[in-house]
Amino acid sequence: MNKIITRDGSITYHSDEVGDNYHTLYGAKQEAIEKHVRALDVVPGKVIFDICFGLGYSAAAALDLGPSTVYCFENDETILKKILEIDADFKSFEMIKEFVRGFFEGKNVYESKGCKLVMMFGDAREKILEAGEKADYVFFAPFSPAKVPELWTEEFFRNIRNKMKTGGKLSTYSYAGWVRENLRKAGFEVLDGPIIGRRSPSTIAVAR
Ligand SMILES: C[S@@+](CC[C@H](N)C(=O)[O-])C[C@H]1O[C@@H](n2cnc3c(N)ncnc32)[C@H](O)[C@@H]1O
What we know:
This protein is α/β, with parallel strands linked by helices. The protein has seven helices and eleven strands.
């Protein structure tokens, strides 16, 4: 796993195994803020699923707005350990680190200052079925559809939809036609998200 400094100065990594970066090189921090938190107009006090938590930037960006509950879906301890090695420019990153330290000590739930973080460690396609609350917002950020098409299926989107409140919103950086079609078939209305660092918009999907 190679460390990369993206154009906004924030750190990401390249996965040799998958052949993909963890974030856009345009700016990892910007991606979390613009393509997820601002794209969904996140307000505090809600239930968020961060599907493919990685370095936890999207969760941190949401918690910077105020306390919320975040279910964090991740299946790789290596990237979680990286969180403990780096600094990231989010007010809540220390909280993310505390949560991850606790996870490595055997605690899946972290609660502080009105925030609740729940580690859903394992394959997100299975762990989604175990989520104990319904989400207002979903940040959906697997590696790219071309690299891991098995995480962008109608079935997985349907299982996510079933764990969301009606009117809840999902954000993802992909604008691939077949991904959007799978979202529609799974019960979402599909809208264009912001155009950040590329020519095409990201995607917002609203649970119908
Ligand atoms: C593109 S990165 C996400 C970056 C993240 N949003 C962030 O802000 O750091 C994709 C993440 O998905 C995780 N992942 C891959 N397959 C998974 C699976 N089946 N279930 C849960 N997480 C998975 C990877 O370990 C990686 O951390």
